[in-house]
């Protein structure tokens, strides 16, 4: 039975890897209010793990804009976290997890957008990486006589280079808020559409409303504080060597976890050939 369970676990890891590796719902009962939102923007995000991969993933992102900070998070993950928290309070022992592959970043911009506090949810209920980094000023080039309409607002086009990519942003001076999704901002209006040249990441606003809801920071049980560089390396490794990464996470070193091969014999899982997932981060450099 031990060998069979190990085999099933490894199979689950491989199948999850091909599906981008989903995340698990978390308890969000431990929370602190850090600000109150004045505005709420909802974006549809379409993305891939690598520009040469045709399989697109989708997420619904919420951006809450307050007086002191801006928070960008997955509405899909938040919904299932809320369900999980309610179920735990009722004493349930099974929980529903977010379907698909929502983008596992939770970003809070503070100090007028100069610093980003980030939580990255590793797949399959593993650690949540907690790290901070400075946000560089973005230099925008405006495109003359470029006008399009998004959500009923007249938008203008601007370009910028950020972290190894070239981006096009449609922003509206009709909403004079210098913000957008992720770390993007600095324009004389809210960004309503944003994409990189390879269209690996494409955001489009679907709603802009006034808001009075609190902006929370959650304390997760399995948070791991680390530097930004450590986080980048850990995330890259979860894609480049997913089998080894997950085996190590459950303490599956040599001689501890075995699988049954196609030949019907048992093999040490650490000797199994890994199955890397094509990966190119949003911030290439």
What would you note in describing this structure?
It is a single chain. The protein is of the alpha+beta class. It has a domain at 31-218: Clam (outer membrane lipoprotein receptor (LolB), chain A), CATH 2.50.20. It is built from four helices and 16 strands. Helix 3 crosses helix 4 (242-249). The radius of gyration is 21 Å and the shape is globular. The model is unreliable at 1-20 (pLDDT under 50).
Short synopsis of the structure:
By secondary structure, the protein is of the alpha+beta class. The chain is built from four helices and 16 strands. A hairpin with a 2-residue loop joins strand 9 (153-162) and strand 10 (165-172).
Characteristics of this structure?
37% strand; 16 strands; two-stranded antiparallel sheet; 285 residues; 14-stranded mixed β-sheet; alpha+beta; outer membrane lipoprotein receptor (LolB), chain A; 4 helices; globular
